[in-house]
Specification:
CATH architecture: 3-Layer(aba) Sandwich
Number of helices: 5
CATH superfamily: Gcn5-related N-acetyltransferase (GNAT)
Helix content: 25-40%
Number of strands: 8
CATH class: Alpha Beta
Radius of gyration: 16 Å
CATH topology: Aminopeptidase
Shape: globular
Distance between the termini: 37 Å
Largest sheet: 8 strands, mixed
Number of domains: 1
Length: 195
């Protein structure tokens, strides 16, 4: 049975540490970098909404359904976003990496590559996952391109899957990486980490 406990994952440039209420001010500041709550394809709260956001994430963690992280750049110990393991399916050794967002000025930098490397490596090598799923808004071309660069395969589109904060109904693109695909994905990510 898959068992996910809070832990810290790190590279020489990035730390993923368990999310806590102490992170609320820094998360609000990170979300202001790019006014992320205004984007139609993500669900990042306004700065004043992060206490509720973190409390809900910790409730899901307590229920064994998620493990949320603060995304921290080592240089200056700066919180630049958040990500999590979610939709944990312990019986089937499957997790989703999701609810990922990164401050505007840190997008398209090393942050996402390092975070995905850490989470995928832990999922496949420490937790023994059979598959890791990654979902995004079907219209979020930037996110979809990043997921595809990882080597994830498109499983399909969940049509009219969820109602977004602005009221529009999202179609969700569902991707996955399988355990047997991990070595190739890992090699590709390691090349990008070293670049």
């Amino acid at each position: 049975m898959l068992r996910i406990e809070p832990m810290t994952l790190s590279t020489d440039r990035l730390i993923l540490r368990p999310l806590s209420l102490d992170d609320v001010p820094a998360l609000g500041e990170a979300a202001m970098d790019g006014a992320l709550w205004e984007k139609k394809t993500t669900t990042v709260p306004r700065p004043e909404g992060f206490e509720e956001y973190v409390r809900k994430a910790l409730d899901l963690q307590a229920a064994g359904l998620a493990l949320p992280f603060a995304t921290v750049v080592r240089d200056g110990e700066r919180v630049v976003g958040s990500t999590r393991y979610m939709n944990i399916d312990a019986a089937n050794h499957r997790v989703e990496i999701g609810t990922t967002w990164i401050a505007g000025s840190w997008q398209r930098t090393f942050v996402n590559t390092h975070a995905k490397f850490l989470m995928l490596r832990h999922a496949f090598e420490a937790l023994g996952c059979h598959a890791v799923e990654i979902r995004t808004h079907s219209l979020n071309d930037q996110s979809r391109a990043a997921i595809e660069r990882l080597g994830a395969k498109l499983d399909g589109i969940l049509r009219r899957h969820m109602i977004m904060p602005d009221g529009h109904i999202r179609d969700t693109a569902v991707y996955s990486i399988l355990q047997e695909e991990w070595p190739e994905v890992k090699a590709r990510l390691q090349q990008r980490l070293e670049a």
